[in-house]
Amino acid sequence: MSLPAAPAATVAELVRGLAAKRYSSVELTRAYLDRVAAAQPELNAFITVTGEAALAAAARADEARAAGRGGPLTGVPLAHKDIFCTEGVLTTCGSKMLANFVSPYDATVVAGLRQAGTVMLGKLNMDEFAMGSSNETSYFGPVRNPWDTARVPGGSSGGSAAAVAARIAPAATATDTGGSIRQPAALCGVTGIKPTYGRVSRYGMIAFASSLDQGGLITVSAEDAALLLGPMSGFDPRDSTSVDSPVPDYTATLADSLDGLTIGLVKEFFDDGLDAECGARIREAIAVLEKQGARVREVSCPNLPLSVPTYYVVAPAECSSNLARFDAMRYGLRVGDDGTRSAEEVMSMTREAGFGSEVKRRIILGTYALSAGYYDAFYGSAQKVRTLIQRDLAAAFAKADVLVSPTAPTTAFKFGEKIDDPLAMYLNDIATIPANLAGIPGMSIPNGLADEDGLPSGLQILAPAREDARLYRVGAALEAWHEEVWGKRMIDFAPELKVGA
Q1: Dihedral sign, CA of 197, 200, 202, 206?
Q2: Cα–Cα distance between 164 and 144 in angstroms, integer?
Q3: Listing from the earlier edge strand, what are the strands of the sheet with 456-462?
Q4: Which residue among the candidates 180, 233, 320, 457 is catalytic per the annotation?
Q5: Does residue 321 have an active-site annotation?
Q6: How many CB atoms within 10 Å of residue 426?
Q7: Is residue 157 annotated as part of the catalytic site, yes or no?
Q8: 180 flagged as catalytic
Q9: Is-contact 135 122, C-beta < 8 A?
Q10: DSSP tag of 141
Q11: pLDDT digits over 19-59, tens only?
């Protein structure tokens, strides 16, 4: 099997092509739908493909452009992680529990991008209720990494990362609770951005852990992320955690010099668990940043090693509370309602049938942590440690403008390698979790090939809260260097060849 030719690699290229009338939105959308159809049997990146609706939206976009009403993103196709509600379209969250749920409204993120003129290709596969680091927990089957289909794409936004890496979607929305954008971006060789907590509305984004969840993007480049984040962002009165502050033009500082920028290397991220070649690629990138005028210094955040145990108390506790709404009484799956059983029995049977093993594990852990007699010992203590982690990062940012680290300790692992060892799986997010605990923005960018199998690795950039623009500035500088060294982007290396190989 081979895929039809990709129209372009980046959203920025598509924007220029549409403006120059090199192709119409209908032609562009049809080309991506053809690629989706060819790749879907092997990658399983989509749960729902909205082909007919996408072509109709593309035709409207072409009409708008012809009438002079179109904006830069009018007619650009993209896809949404299936955690965002989409009016009239299945929104499953990768779960049997919601396998028949058609949302009656759009999430704020979806509405913002729709208003900007983008065209939705469909809904992307994900770990069930965003719980997982490998995209092996989806009710709709695992997503496969286009670099090597015997390996995981990362999770929970594995469908988003795989779709962008395989160029069956030029960009995709995603969510990040403990690294679920950045880790799959690293494993699939693409760019992932988790904005500052509250910058992107969570309204219509099905909740996992409300104090940690944040919507974001997976794209090919920092420029693409900067182009798309604007329409997704802004104050939303329907989200009590939404930040009421102006949304800057994230593209404005992309080309700014790195002269005088201080980059902090967090000592705790370079421990014995880091793959040697992943570490080597990070050090090469650091040397490049220094040549471009940045100053580099080591910083220490002594409480960061406590991030994983802290997260796996806070997140399950909050998921236990949020998922209580799936009770068979209002929407979604309903099992055992034959007129002879009580509401409690129907609820129990529905939750037993509707939730997968990873979701059940986290609900049980969270319920235990919140139970009488254990709240202070577990959840209360975890929140205190969370404060220490936030203080560590604040102290680090007093010494550095951005922090740089590996995104994940290894490259993509094989299916089944960690699924039966939850602790090993959870440790895969060790570098990404601190950003969610602290509410700060983080980005993962491709950073070379890091093992004998030629798999991608990622470099993570962290910035203080509301200083998201710094991420794009550093990311764009490193991407420019990569193109200069390799002669092409990482996405041009392998996925096109290995899908269907």
Answers
A1: negative
A2: 12
A3: 46-49, 119-124, 77-81, 172-176, 214-219, 191-194, 442-449, 456-462, 402-406, 262-266, 295-299
A4: 180
A5: no
A6: 18
A7: no
A8: yes
A9: no
A10: -
A11: 999 999 999 999 999 999 999 999 999 999 999 999 999 99
